[in-house]
Structure prediction request, 258 residues.
Amino acid sequence: MDWGLSNRLARIIKPDTGRSVMLAVDHGYFLGPTSGLEDPATTIEPLLPYADSLMLTRGVLRTSVPTNFDIPIVLRVSGGTSIVGKDLSNEGITTSLKEAIRLNVSAVALSIFVGSDHEKETLLGLSELVNQSIEYGIPVLAVTAVGREMTRDARYLSLCCRIAAELGAHIVKTYYCDDFEKVVESCPVPIVIAGGKKITEKDALKLAHDAVSHGAVGVDMGRNIFQSDNPVGMIQAVRAIVHKGSSVEDAYGLYQKA
Ligand code: 5RP
Prediction:
């Protein structure tokens, strides 16, 4: 692996713990002003000191993140769909690699939709993104989106993660599931988990704890942080679990105290 690629990956998955707390605020690319992200700058600013990296679109990066804060960027470069559209799986590439380089990102990210009508396009899209990005030492994070008709079980998520890794993704983002260790064991690259829809803070912390306990290198969490009644407390609690091995109880205490 070339120096640049390794260095960028080390900005995302921290070498001292081998773990990662990625704050996901890219939801607007298809959800619009979703709850908690109505004003991205106000949401993001207090959370910056606690996130290892930010996952977002170029639009939010340019308008809502200070240029003088040292935070690695994972740039969402796929899209082209919306929550009111016909098919969320019909994504393409929205952002060029030149723009990603201009924005000094540490990685680029796109979604794949295995089992959907657009499986082939999204998998070839991942492959082409990897072909281009490795020319510049920029890692690719593949997001395994799960269509409504799919079941988030180990069998399906193992399929998605392994395909993403086979096609060249350097990191894969998926969901936690029962027998998650099977997903990890069959995926040769690091896995982070998305938090998914808002659940109670304690359940979200248990999700993070279960995920890293079963082999995920961390989380790429959004709604369960920025839709919390105490986002700073929540990201501090997630950090304690991911980077310090805190128990759910201890982390929950951090959330309550903050
Ligand atoms: C939205 C995304 C998000 O990055 C991903 O789902 C993580 O966010 P959350 O924890 O809110 O699920 O890909 O399309």
